[in-house]
Write a structure and sequence with these properties.
The structure holds two protein chains of two kinds.
Chain A lengths: L5 H7 L9 H18 L3 E9 L4 E8 L8 E5 L6 E2 L5 H8 L12 E3 L5 H10 L4 E3 H16 L1 E3 L3 E3 L5 E3 L8 H4 L5 E3 L11 H6 L19 E6 L4 E6 L5 E5 L6 E7 L7 H4 L1
Parallel strand pairs in A: 1-14
Antiparallel strand pairs in A: 1-2, 2-3, 3-4, 5-6, 7-10, 8-9, 11-12, 12-13, 13-14
Chain B lengths: L30 H16 L9 H15 L8 H18 L9 H13 L7 H9 L6 H9 L7 H17 L2 E10 L6 E8 L8 H24 L29 E5 L7 E2 L5 H7 L24 H16 L1 E3 L3 E3 L17 E3 L8 H6 L4 E3 L20 H6 L1 H6 L29 E5 L10 E5 L5 E6 L2 E8 L35 H35 L1
Parallel strand pairs in B: 1-12
Antiparallel strand pairs in B: 1-2, 2-3, 3-4, 5-8, 6-7, 9-10, 10-11, 11-12
The chains are: A alpha+beta, B alpha+beta.
């Protein structure tokens, strides 16, 4: 969610019972602004928080002029001092996927591998590295996975300029109520995967300036999103069932939208059994 | 005087034709033809489109008017959108004459319901108000929400207030002694808001009628079956030796897992629905399945093992499990009542009632957060059987023993061992963790202002269960999806082993059909036997005749 609209956004996304204390809200207002100044971000998003057993990680993302470029991610344990996280690599993501269980709350905590292939073990020993992974890497990988899998925006909120960079659409007035209830009006804000698999007929209907991302309706498994109208039908709230804790809100016919994650940072692998 | 020469620096021929030196300069432009050219251009611009009826001249005029009125930044970058908007606006005006009614959005209806919450009920006079202010079962939801908000837990203030008003409505309708906002469970289509309630003594609705009817029906069936068996004793079908495990009866309303009654509604403003009491079978099954709630109480639960009930029962079972595992209070707040009877009377099951301690001295926040032994469970834990107080299902009353002495004695399985759970008011330090994670995470709401900090506990076994304590006040709440945490993936129960078929014996086993040789041999043997028998008969007949002749 945008740092500028944080208080109002937290009220809209509070249906799940998770939010921020007044103290954190107050300090975030100031510290996110300072982040914008120090790192020269054009936009700062409060991404959410990951609850560890002994502490909580607060995550912020900074965006540059091209909104679709890889975002810089920062974490903090107290919302006052922020540390930049290293960019996520595929290897990091693959290694972190094997880890299970809660986050500990200490960025320097090291996990030991419980199950690795014999090949990986050999390779690691050759490199001289031990089969340990730091919680910081796991944090980076988890945030990347969550953004890739369930970071969403309404259709039309961003446009792709002819030069290829992505910017906010100044003419976006919000989705209508009927559109807002459909999953096809929301896109994953990440590199599209399914776009090229569409048939030519479907592609002909797309508008290349706004439809350059994957929509939600083909997500596997079907039904991994819940769409609800809250506050008497004035706010559309989407919750992901794959990453429990991700909440997306949008007030139809206005420009207010955003997503935030309040959770433990664990993927819900039992989803097919639970539907 | 340039004519229609190149105007842009990058176009070819720019700057070549200076005024007075262009190739057409010797042709003196005829003012009339100039005017004609202008008129032609304007006529072209004014030409109406065949498809939309607009013309370019008007459209450009409207667009430029709009731009000059609004003065957007970087207008040239968004000029296409502005053009589209102007065209859109054109069409909208035409449609206005057709639309007479305003659209009735579903949001308006919801707002109506919300507004109804805020209106005072009819017939509420001043006298009633005075009574209410004294002691009301209405919980102070806003106060609890304030304390939880210090930790970042809770719904938005609007929603909390709506819930408070909805609870007020519930209390005015039902005879309720105590009421508490238990929490919110999220679902796929709709969410549940749950209130935990205790009725006044003796005012509970009698729901036992339904159960009696069902039991009588079952007995009737048994009688009919017996009659059939007597008739068919000759060709008895093989009787199944399967005896289903005995059904463990649910606990009485007001005790154990059914201590509280729960009301749910989807949104404040919608009517409250009472959840049925929970049976041990439902709890045992709920432990084995993991399903999302849809938000509709009558939705079926499709699962294996098959859940005995619909979503209302599953919801009630999960609420029972969560309450049993996460209802905690600071130590000393509740104490056991002074009882005259001994523990023997209760069958060794331990005490199951508690009362508030009038001499409760609250501990400081640092102590509450520092160690888990300063908190105790006041929710009775549920045994493996599915009840809070263990019941031996094979114990029979005297009447039943007389009837079933013959049948049952032969097949009593091994006696079940009595299950004992942790007694009431055990401290949290006895709670088992999961792998290397403790069962609870305790922290103070703020480290900057310790004087006014609130102690907050989060459950790691049931993510979403929270408790706070500040001075003499404490409360529990649940916000979540209603499932237990397990680091391992959920493994559904495997189907039962294939049951043994009827034991094979000679009367059931198929034998081989006889071959032709065997049949012929048999036939020959029979004929011989028949011939031998005829000879004997003839001899006998002769003898008989001889005897007759003698007489």
């Amino acid at each position: 969610m945008e740092a500028a609209s944080l208080p109002a956004a937290l009220e809209l996304a509070a249906g799940g019972g998770a939010g921020l204390s007044p103290e954190k809200r107050a300090v975030l207002g100031a510290s996110l602004l300072l982040l914008q100044r120090d790192y020269r971000f054009e936009r700062v998003w409060f991404w959410g928080c990951i609850q560890g057993v002994r502490g909580v990680y607060y995550i912020a993302e900074g965006l540059g002029p091209d909104r679709a470029a890889p975002r810089s991610r920062l974490y903090s344990l107290n919302c006052v001092e922020w540390s930049l996280l290293p960019p996520a690599t595929e290897e990091m993501v693959a290694r972190a996927e094997q880890l299970k269980g809660r986050f500990q709350g200490d960025p320097s905590f090291e996990y030991e591998y419980t199950e690795i292939n014999a090949e990986d073990a050999e390779r690691l020993f050759e490199d001289g590295k031990e089969p340990m992974i730091k919680e910081e890497s796991r944090l980076v990988a988890t945030i990347e996975q969550i953004d890739r899998a369930v970071g969403i925006i309404p259709r039309g909120a961003f446009v792709k300029t002819p030069l290829g960079s992505v910017r906010e659409n100044r003419n976006f007035e919000g989705l209508s109520l009927t559109e807002a209830k459909k999953l096809s009006s929301y896109f994953h804000f990440t590199e599209p995967v399914n776009l090229k698999n569409k048939t030519l007929l479907e592609k002909a209907d797309l508008d290349p300036s706004t439809d350059f991302l994957d929509s939600l309706e083909h997500d596997i498994p079907q039904g991994s999103w819940t769409v609800q109208l809250e506050k008497g039908g004035t706010v559309v709230v989407l919750r992901s069932l794959l990453w429990l804790g991700l909440t997306f809100y949008h007030v139809p016919m206005t420009k207010q939208y955003g997503y935030v994650y309040f959770g433990t940072g664990e993927k819900n692998l039992d989803l097919p059994f639970m539907l | 005087q340039h004519g229609h020469g190149p105007y842009q620096p990058h176009e070819p021929g720019y700057g070549l034709y200076q005024p007075g030196y262009s190739p057409y300069d010797d042709q003196i432009p005829d003012p009339a033809s100039r005017m004609l050219a202008i008129q032609n251009a304007k006529a072209y611009l004014l030409k109406s489109s065949t498809t939309s009826g607009l013309n370019l001249y008007d459209h450009l005029a409207n667009m430029l008017t709009k731009i000059l009125d609004e003065q957007p930044i970087n207008a040239v970058d968004v000029i296409e959108n502005i053009s589209k908007d102007v065209k859109w606006a054109q069409f909208q005006k035409k449609m206005d004459t057709l639309r007479d009614e305003h659209e009735i959005l579903p949001t308006f209806e919801a707002a109506e319901k919300c507004k109804a919450l805020f209106l005072k009920a009819n017939g509420e006079g001043d006298e009633e108000l005075e009574e209410e202010i004294g002691e009301t079962p209405l919980p102070n939801v806003m106060e609890t929400a304030f304390y939880f908000e210090q930790a970042g837990i809770g719904l938005s203030k609007d929603e909390s207030y709506h819930i408070l008003l909805a609870l007020k409505k519930l209390i005015s309708v039902q005879p309720i002694q105590t009421c508490r906002f238990w929490g919110k469970i999220l679902g796929l289509e709709m969410n549940y808001i749950i209130a935990e309630v205790q009725y006044h003594e003796g005012e509970e609705e009698e729901e036992t009628e339904e159960e009696e009817v069902i039991e009588e029906g079952a007995k009737g069936m048994g009688e009919v079956e017996d009659e059939d068996e007597n008739k068919e004793k000759e060709d008895e079908l093989p009787k199944s030796t399967y005896k289903p495990p005995p059904v463990i009866p649910k606990e009485e309303n007001g005790t154990g897992a059914n201590k509280y009654v729960y009301f749910v509604c989807n949104e404040p403003g919608k009517p409250w629905v009472k959840l049925p009491p929970v049976t041990p079978a439902q709890i045992v099954c709920a432990r084995k399945i993991k399903k999302f709630f849809t938000g509709r109480l009558d939705a079926p639960i499709v699962s294996f093992p098959p859940f005995p009930g619909n979503e209302a029962n599953y919801l009630r079972a999960q609420i029972a499990r969560i309450s049993a595992g996460t209802q905690i209070s600071p130590i000393g707040f509740y104490q056991f009542a002074e009882e005259e009877g001994d523990e023997e009377e209760e069958g060794g099951g331990g005490r199951d009632t508690y009362e508030e301690n009038p001499d409760f001295q609250p501990l400081s926040v640092a102590e509450m957060v520092g160690s888990l032994s300063t908190w105790v469970h006041h929710g009775q834990s549920i045994l493996k059987q599915g009840r809070c107080v263990w019941l031996n299902p094979f114990q029979k009353s005297e009447e039943e023993e007389e009837d079933d002495v013959e049948e049952e004695k032969a097949e009593e399985p091994n006696e079940l061992q009595q299950e004992i759970g942790p007694p009431l008011l055990t401290p949290l330090s006895e709670d088992e963790g999961i792998q290397n994670i403790p069962a609870w995470t305790a922290e103070a709401s703020t480290n900057l202002i310790p004087q006014y900090a609130v102690a907050i506990l989060q459950s790691n076994r049931w993510p979403g269960a929270y408790a706070f304590a500040s001075g003499k006040k404490f409360d529990n709440i649940y916000f979540g999806w209603g499932h237990k945490y397990s680091p391992e993936n959920h493994t559904p129960a495997l189907p039962a082993a294939v049951q043994a078929e009827y034991p094979s014996g000679p009367e059931v086993a198929e034998t081989r059909d006889p071959t032709l040789e065997e049949e012929l041999a048999l036939k020959a043997a029979r004929e011989e036997a028949l011939a031998a028998a005829e000879e004997e008969e003839e001899e006998e007949d002769v003898e008989d005749d001889e005897e007759d002749e003698d007489d």
